[in-house]
Write a structure and sequence with these properties.
Oligomer: single chain
Strand order of the largest sheet: 2-1-4-7
Number of strands: 9
Largest sheet: 4 strands, mixed
Helix content: under 10%
Radius of gyration: 12 Å
Distance between the termini: 22 Å
Length: 87
């Protein structure tokens, strides 16, 4: 589970295993945010107080950045990482 509040993703790093289908349950706690992860083509609006599930298959190992695009992108807004461990 992920929360986003005070312009931070909590936790800001998610570690998953390569080949897994990942379900991220994300809740925006204090205002509207979004979740963007361009490498996996993920994008979701995160309305304040509502949970959203983002699902993807962790097909490539490595460290991938996610961020709030509407907050200014990875340089300005909340940012986090998905680490896909190889099997």
């Amino acid at each position: 589970d992920l929360a986003v509040r005070g312009n931070e993703f909590v936790p800001n790093t998610v570690i998953v295993n390569g080949g897994d289908t990942v379900h991220l349950n994300i809740v925006a706690e204090d205002k509207n945010y979004d979740f963007t992860q361009p490498d996996y083509g993920l994008s979701a609006q995160l309305p304040k107080g509502q949970a959203r599930i983002v699902e993807f298959s962790a097909s490539a190992s490595g460290k991938f950045t996610f961020f709030c695009k509407s907050c200014g992108g990875p340089d300005k807004g909340p940012v986090g990482y998905i680490v896909v461990a190889s099997k």
